[in-house]
């Protein structure tokens, strides 16, 4: 006897209406598998999970295998195969939040909700979980509540929030006063203080509207690139690659399609400068993208917004719509025939690795955020195999200002090898955390005086993938030829435990590794375990050499920047705080090292990466 369609739907775990909803979501992006992130985000939002039956429907609609869809859905932290609460609360678990009272905030949430972190209430109303840095270190402890954020949390504030949510008030009304009456910009400002402590002349001072774009239209593509090269502008994400050279390479590559991508996935713990630019200078960001498009001949652009900044999505979409209405995006920009360019917003879903440009491109293509093998480089073969320029928010803003004001003006600030100004995200043990726009070349000591951190004992420059320095090197300067940084400056006073900080950052890298290559996936677990031995007083002096040797191996053999920089918390503290390690490393009585179980050490890495190793897994071939 033939089965009824409704019976078949029920057996699949989805009703006919639910299946139709998922198919409609896929059709909104023309069933394009490259738009998998958008599909999964909308399914997660609609159903509070991406179930196995939902993956089947998505696979059928997009022409992919079920395993391909599951590979993407399982990669990103914000996707879940099990239903999340109608209100999902993600507590920022960054080290700064921990030092700012996260433990009491967590206890308050657990008490008010009668669940522990990692659980969902029996009625499906609330989920509570931890998440790494969400770009709010200057106002910690902080949390995401669905698509909104809340800062400067206290136990008292937690009880007020939960009481209002339990009474039936939506998060929007609880976290933003008069939410419905406010513009997207006003909502963002209500939730988050931008803490602009020092506005420099380039990005945070007065900015003429679209002066750079007007100049770009008048001068043409070749002159745009020459101007950037003359200015000396270097990428502001930390690596410092010359921006003009990158644009020239993309423009010189023969292709029918080219792309400009704005990397707004600043996931480095301690970094939040791009968050401020996206809020206060969104027009300048899109102006910079449009200038880049003019320079390389691109007609399509993407701004990749980290999932933690979802609260800015409405603001950015509003600005994009305004620019289209004024002829600054779309066909014939500023009346110039053939100058056609538009931008779409791509939201991420919680993956630190997507800050790496290859992983970011993979994510934009609807794939797991795994780095791409290089060469080829994105400027010759990037998004969808086409020449692609990827620059971060700050770099694109600088490019727009340079075109509008002049290369010599920009080059006259900073230092010879590091021209211009830099936005520094300062957080931690200081009186005035926030954003400081200063010329390159400022010393750590001068910056600490500005931020009110005279008692600083250690400063982390560039986030955990950067360098931790001690008091005796505070005269070093923030510039590419000394302390290069993407912008993060985290201050720690003498009460902080250096090894606790290092162990936290190593656990962060273990969690955020994409799992593709063994050195990063397994090696960082070994480093984390070894630091744990030092903290417990179980380390031998020979363990110091072990840390150095293993770190060097991970750096030399990892596939991408995450593995190449993940040992930095250990290497820089070994160099600048050697007594911290030697003081706790004691020779054992029998001159043997503590036993080490390699299998238990890498178990967490197996579970996180969903991969096994030819070398370390005994049953790999079974």
Tell me what you see in this structure.
There is one protein chain. This protein has about 625 residues and is α/β, with parallel strands linked by helices. Helix content is about 45%, strand content about 10%. The chain has 28 helices and 15 strands. A six-stranded mixed β-sheet has the order 6-12-11-15-13-14. A five-stranded mixed β-sheet has the order 2-3-1-4-5. It has a four-stranded parallel β-sheet with strand order 9-8-7-10, with helices on both faces. Strand 2 and strand 3 form a beta hairpin. The chain is globular and about 75 Å long. The N terminus and C terminus are likely disordered. Belongs to the complex I 51 kDa subunit family. Keywords: 4Fe-4S, Iron, Iron-sulfur, Metal-binding. Its cofactor is FMN; [4Fe-4S] cluster.
> Which CATH architecture of the largest domain?
3-Layer(aba) Sandwich
Query: Tally of extended strands?
Result: 15
Averaged pLDDT: 92
What would CATH call the class of the largest domain? Alpha Beta
Unreliable residue stretches: 1-11, 591-598, 613-622
Beta fraction of the residues? 5-15%
Strand line-up of the largest beta sheet = 6-12-11-15-13-14
Describe the protein's topology:
Blueprint: H1 5-11, H2 16-28, H3 36-47, H4 52-62, H5 66-73, E1 87-92, H6 95-99, H7 102-113, E2 119-120, E3 126-131, E4 143-145, E5 148-150, H8 155-166, H9 171-175, H10 184-191, E6 196-198, H11 211-219, H12 221-231, H13 243-252, E7 259-264, H14 273-280, H15 282-296, E8 300-305, H16 313-325, E9 342-347, H17 357-364, E10 388-392, H18 393-405, H19 407-411, E11 421-428, E12 434-439, H20 444-451, E13 456-461, E14 467-470, E15 488-493, H21 498-512, H22 518-535, H23 542-557, H24 561-565, H25 568-576, H26 578-582, H27 598-601, H28 603-609
Helix pairs in contact: 2-4, 4-5, 7-8, 11-15, 11-18, 12-13, 12-15, 15-18, 21-22, 22-23, 23-25
